[in-house]
Amino acid sequence: MVTYVVRRLMTAALILLGASFLVYLLTAASGDPLEEFRVNNSPQKQALMDARTQLLQLDVPAPVRYFRWLGGAAQCLVPFANSCDLGKNIAGQPVTDALGHALVQTLTLVTGATILAILIGITLGIITALRQYSALDYGVTFMAFLFFSLPIFWVAVLLKEFGAIGFNNFLRDPDVPLPVALAIGLVLGVIVAVAAGGALRRRLTVGAVVFAFVSAVLIYFSATLWFKNPGLGPVVIAIAGVGIAFAVTLLSAGLKNRKALQSSLIAVAVGVVLYFVVQPLLNQATFLMIVLLAIAAVLVGLGIGYLMGGYDRGQSMRAAAITSFLVGGMILLDRFMQAWPSYFDNSRVRGRPIATIGAGTPNIEGDFWILGLDSFTHLILPTMALILISLASYTRFTRASMLEIMNMDYIRTARAKGVSERTVVMRHAFRNALIPIATIVAFDIGGLIGGAVITESVFSVRGMGFLFLDGISHTDPNPVMGVFVCVAITAMGFNLIADLAYSALDPRVRVKA
Amino acid sequence: MSQPSQQDEIMAEDAALKGAPAAGIEPVLEAKGLSQGQIVRKRFLGHTGAIIGLVVFAIIFLMAFTSVGYLGIPGWWKYNHEQVSALVNDGAPTSSLWPLAWGEHPFGQDRIGRDLFAMTMRGAQQSITVMVVIGVIAGLLGVLVGAISGYFRGWAEAILMRLTDVIIIIPALLLAAVMAQMAGRRDSGSWFASFASTNGVLALGIFLGLISWVSLARLMRGEFLSLREREFVDAARISGASNARIIFKHILPNAVGVLIVNVTLTMSAAILTETALSFLGVGVKAPDTSLGLLISQNQQAFATRPWLFWFPGLFIVLICLSINFIGDGLRDAFDPRQKKFNAKKAREADAAAGAPAGSSAGASPAAEKSAVTAFDGTKDD
Known about the structure:
The structure holds two protein chains of two kinds. Chain A has 19 helices and no strands. By secondary structure, chain A is an all-alpha fold. The interface between A and B is large, with 77 and 63 residues.
């Protein structure tokens, strides 16, 4: 095992050396960094050219420059020396600084999108696998192919137009006319009726309920100007919390486990009570406090489950912990919604909250909630674009993996010995289907940092992709190299992790030392 | 074809006889002793999505290459992508569905009066050209590298696979930028610069082809690694077949399914790459046009002239979608475990909750690729 890892790491280092040499030469050969001075006629032309030549050491041949760069970059490997030197960009700024800033921007952009895409994709994949050859399956399969074929820059421009400009216009006067509300309700009702399984009668009932509910909610929202002053309030949190409690128990322990259900319901009750308690506390919120509160919520859930006990204490604890975490999330969402009107009327935002470019409103001031909403409104469109694009592969892969598992002998054995369908799916099938997915997820995370070049350029996020493109267009090797090294190291590292994870999760696969 | 196809057939026959009780699976035709090619063709033609994809792609292909002409041959459409004409109806599209009419400028015109239909068709030509060039180059190189490293193993494999590793992490964007820069310097007089500046899209396709063979090579190597251990290879070697004969006559026909499917998927990804590079300004450049370049030029005009944005995007999606469906159909056709499934028959047979056998529909291309690389390490060394 150790031999294997060491050998992989050595190979990776050699590959990195070779590839970085090539990348450096290619970037250097791709153009002339002095071109902008050659065409201009200013009197200090020669001085400017000399200054840049000295800054970028243009008088030295590119291969030699590469080895000088390598010498600086090698210092990054010395731990705690703090002498990392990746060179300077064309403006004389150290690349390490720019890289750090860009990395933060890119990570905030891609993290949420990736997590959501994985969650939604795996869920859809499992549902379509369980209901193979249903209308839902065909619909999702077609959508997956469609999303897979969409050019992301096209989607991004569409989202900007309809998601930002259109929605902002709507928010100025948030009035949903009655026919529109009914039409939206009808469309959703039909979709649900088609997607829901079972007999025609059941489908129609479900569709009608969804139609009535959605239309009523939209009419209510329109009448009370909810879009201007959104909020959930304790009542909605309580009702939705009960729903969450049932759903979580159903999936994690089964409704027959009464103790687990009771623990979850108690967690919801505690959450609703705490809703009033934490409101003053939340007014002084910081990021750390939110994290601590989230941990506290999980701990409270675990405690409730522990005290309820039952024949399977672990299941009660797990159900209650997940429920209380989700209820806590709703309380957080409610608090963000409370801050919405003041964000909406902020002098910097001027009533057009959904932004099309950038990662934040310049010079905005406010508390945690305003700033949080600000980054949310900036992130929502690129996140949606990234989710749409990456959803397809997760859905298809999970579906294929799940179908293969559902045909295994041990699934038949489990059914034959009388295990409930929930346990078969969640415990026997789902866990084993996750093994190949885990490797893909690791692989994708490795490719994340460099994977959003186009999204970043369309939404003007100054992340890694921007740095890379900018470096290429100015024939500036140092930022390009910085981005390349970061991306390549994470990609190869996670590739190794994916291989190791596979053999750790699936005992049949062994890495050969 | 060689023995294994017969073997597969027997296996398929067995499966067909055994698998009869599974609901909704048609009594399989391959039991009649068809050749592998016939089975594949039958399965492919039975795949509705793939046939629709094929038809759509054929229509687009014909339209793109006959309408505005290609390689100097004039087409039937009255404008070309550079010609400026007077604005009709302020450039709005003149085509309509009801009454069905084509009009003077069916897709509209841009700000200076160029015909969008001609530009879109030219862009579709470019995309299809790039796609085919990438598919051919990547397929050839991938087969060659995969076959050599998978069949001969040893130092050839070590060198080639490390080379693959190096190329796989070099960003395509950088190479395209380098190529664009070199093509831009047409005065420097090198043969490449003059070639690239006259055949921009061809050069782009060749460049992208030279880097997109890597995943294909890994897949082919995996196939060769497992196929070279089979008995029929031993038999061929004992009867005195040369290495080249074993590779091309005995192993390659058995790996052709994986090859065709993945070349198709590489091609559909290639269209998106080309349009994305053109969008970023390092692919096809003005005055020539491409679908990505059209979108990039017109994204600011979305509020005033949305059609300039809709039609190129629609064609990208249509081409890519049809290729993906064709690829999906091919994968189903080549997968011996796949049985034709008929949902109606399944319902009639009152299928129980158990999912029908042999339904491991393929994963998406990206997923498949990474899965292979994941296995790669464990198989390695």
